[in-house]
Structure prediction request, 108 residues.
Amino acid sequence: MTEWHVWATALAGGLVLPVSFFSLSLSSRYTHPSNVSLLMLRETVLGPIWIWAGTGIQPTPSMLVGGVIVIVSLALYLGHTGLRQVPARQADLVKLHGRIVSIDGLSA
Prediction:
């Protein structure tokens, strides 16, 4: 094990993993937990691509096709549910405050 491997392992274990798991736990407050678990599928799909970029081991065509199917279906699902939830959230805001409030606090 070289000195670079030690630093890379320390960086992954000390910074990347805690930040990523904290972000995952925090994200379930702002979206449905099933969306969080679906987004975690990207790690499984993109893993072979990262291996390919880092080591040069090429993924097979069937791996790439499967990854594209998962990413496209995930994007379609999240896009569809996001479009469906925006009017419902705006209606909830109107009921709650009597007007729609934008992110910066000004009336929309």
